[in-house]
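[job 4471] stage=fold_predict status=RUNNING
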Amino acid sequence: MNPGQARVEVAPETTDTPLPAEVLATLTEIGEGVNSSLDLDEVLARTAALIKRHIDYEIFGVLMVEGGGAYLKHCFSIGYPRELVENLRVPIGQGITGTAAATGHSVRVSDTSKDDRYIAAIENVRSELAVPLMLQGKCVGVLDIQSRHPDYFTPDQQNILTLLASRLAVAIENARLYQKERTQAETLLLLNEVGRETSSILDVEELLRRAAEQIKRVIDYQILSLMLYDEKQKVFRHRIDVKHGQHVQGKLRVAVSEGIVGAAATLKAPVRVPDVSADPRYLMVNPETRSELAIPMIHKGQVIGVLDLESPQLNYFTEDHVQTLSILAANLAVSLENARLYEKLARDEARLERDLQAAKRIQGALLQPVPNEDYGLDMAARYLSAREVCGDLYEFLRYGPQQLGIALGDVSGKGTAAALYGAVAIGIMRSLSPQKLQPADILKVMNQIIGERRIEGRFMTACFATWQKGKRKLRVANAGQSQPLLYKDGHCDKIELTGFPLGIFEEVNYDEWNGVLEPGEILVFHSDGIAESTNLEGQFFGTEKLRKLIEQHHELQSAELADLILREVDWFTQNAPLADDRTLVIAKVR
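[job 4471] inference complete, writing structure tokens
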């Protein structure tokens, strides 16, 4: 026995009549034998062998009180058919063994054929001796020996077994306590292993399948059903059904108040039914079922499913089963909820991905390509999104064959919300196109319209220009956007324009710059995602590098220059993921 292991002790047997030396020697030998081990099977096997040396029985059995004190069941036997040992239940008070258990006194029957109490379980038995195993005044079992000869057992043998019984009861109880603690320790280790494995599975179907396999390691069930609660239909749906090791199709659904399963769900507690025929709640699904155990799986106070076990044996499920499976059901409930949340997240992410891809296609359709008409400009437009959809925008408004409006905008924030806001801005610009407003005016009107539909925390910066082909005249206004760059007379400089972003203040006037451009001169609109791109050291790409690039490569076509700028920014950031959208519009006078 391990240190600290509980051990039952009883007072020594006493008798008024001195025991013969031979009887004392027999008791000593048997007592030493049964107390030399804590393995219950070994204790009982040694007991049977030692008793056989002194009492030549033909049939031997040790029956323990089970079923909450309702009956006796074999835990060790010699000479009994295996099927009989597995299925025989002797009610307390019935038969020779049941009488010994009920009275607490040994019963010796010389001729069983003349005793009405005898239960004829084995043919040709004529003599029987049943001795109760008493522990602290309570019967815990019965030692029973039988013979096919009448009047076979003697009073001395009865005395020996009666005196031995108390010692055997202590040895059995010690062994049972040790075995129970060892079994509990093994079960806890197993539950810990099962919990670790199930918690790592994020697919509901795979989790349920593995749970059925793992439960089999904890309890040797015959029929199992794992049911999950359907919140919409208010029913429990069978997800896994196993019958005698084979997966089968169970009932499709069970109402929340139906049967033993419904009782466990309603009570939010395990329901153990020793005999289903005596329980009015039982609904017969499997005709062979005799006992049932239903354990609710509860997560945050809500029953999310029920673990249901059935057995063809009466009173098959014990309190130990209830305790063990309750722990397993609690762990399984957490794992199931995690798997469900993961599946929901995966579905939501897939749906979101589909929506974002659709939004990306729609946004691509909203951003008009560079006009094919000859406005005397070589133009290029580029945008790179930091997310699936872009918060930057550009637009070309055809005022007529000689005049073109060019816009670049940047909505505060990123992602879908910014893209939607930008789509609204594009719609406003297009609705104003027939009025052929000049830059300062169109920004003022846009600010008023956006201000009327103000969204908390949202605004937009924009730069707008108009180009007149015949006069080669450029007009530019700015509403908080990165200052545009103009390559003119061999130098690239900012067009010094500032202004409040759109959608912050209701009444705002904007300044306007105008000038005449010569062939080869270049206008560059750019979002802050280009100049404010950083490298691993945290340094900005900056407007100065952008100006130098334009000066050095001003002879390139607009598309070539736009691609070169984006490549240089990408190289500067060492291909790091985009922190902000990058958008360019370049117009070079032909």
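[job 4471] summary: The first helix runs from residue 21 to 34.
[job 4471] exit 0
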